[in-house]
Amino acid sequence: xxxxxxxxxxxxxxxxxxxxxxxxxxxxxxxxxxxxxxxxxxxxxxxxxxxxxxxxxxxx
Length: 60
Known about the structure:
Elements: H1 6-16, H2 19-39, H3 42-54
């Protein structure tokens, strides 16, 4: 949707996801952040960047 906001997406996810699924997603996101922040290896960064795009996450 053109006018969709992050808050809209969070509200939609709350309606569909169980607390366990939400916790799993947050844990996965924290793992990605840890790898990118603490490793900062260009190869790891590029791999995670490409994975995010493959998963449909827009980052630009």
